Amino acid sequence: VFCTTAPIGKGHGGGIVSYYECQALKEISELIQVVCPISEDMGVPVETISLNDRYHDNPFMWDYVTSLKVKHADIAFFNGGPFSSSTRAINPSLVVVDVPAHNLEVSVEEHQNLIGVYPYRQLIDQPLRDWYFDYMVNADLIICPSKMSADYVKRYPGTKAKVVVVPHGTDLPGEAKPLPEQFKVGYLGATGPDKGTIYLLKAWAGLMYKDSELLLAGAEWRENRISSLFQRGQRVNILGRVESISDFYNSISVYCQPSVTEGFGLS
Predict the structure, then answer these.
(1) Quick check: is 262 in a domain?
(2) For site-directed labelling of 30, which of 100, 194, 223, 247 has its Cα 20 to 30 A away?
(3) 115, 188: one domain
(4) Half-sphere exposure of 201 (CA within 13 A, CB side)
(5) CATH no. for residue 40?
(6) Distance, CA of 78 to CA of 2 (rounded, Å)
(7) What residue ranges carry the coiled-coil annotation (predicted)?
(8) Are residues 160 and 47 in the same domain?
(9) What's the domain range around 132?
(10) CA distances from 216 to 148, 157, 203, 255 (A)
């Protein structure tokens, strides 16, 4: 059984990772069920879950609802979390969790600087934090996408001996085209405080490059407070969601990943 809080598919970072994890599980096991918010056709039974606005950002409610949907299986693979209740409901012989952890202290600081509050109480309130990490402490294997991510997870008691590093896979570009005539810098991804996009925009405003353009791709750019910090005339082009990632990379001269802290940026 594979469970995730990410929408499985190619249009979202966590969704891409979940998609390939499902494909890998199908290759090495009999994947009998996928439980997630939304999914592309995986060729296996999928149980979709949804929460109303009141509970949508409550990870423990996601776990509870998932636990009502899951079947018994020999192996439980979790992406995201926590999934303590779901683990008990599945009652597997082997539990594997994928945890793309990053620097919590830096993340808290960036959220407070940009939006005034850190919204994920389960990571900073100690009783909730212990509850949140319970599913990892009781897992048989913890997969982290980078050494840095693994080092953060190992800080929590009971996890160190279970952690292995397995980098995320991703699609390679279909072809590499010549550089564009105009100098273009690109960013593709989310816009949250951890991503450091506000620093990219400030740096770009100060460079004053002539005959150049900053391209910002990703669904979140269409409705985001950061985009209100600049005017459209400042050589910045908001593309929003792009259908072809390969075409986007071929349209730019340089790619910039301004993340302040990152578990493993797919871009």
Answers:
(1) no
(2) 100
(3) no
(4) 20
(5) 3.40.50.2000
(6) 6
(7) none
(8) yes
(9) 2-165
(10) 27, 40, 14, 10
